[in-house]
Amino acid sequence: MKKISALLLLSFCLTSCIGYGNGIMSYAINGSSSVDKTFTEEELNRIETYFGVNTKPDKPYKQLSYLEALGEEGSTMEELVKLLKQEAAKYGADAIIEITRMSEAREVGTAVITEGNYVYDAMLLTGIAIKYEETAKKLGGN
Question: Which of 2, 17, 64, 97 is 20–30 Å from 138 (CA)?
Answer without folding.
Answer: 97
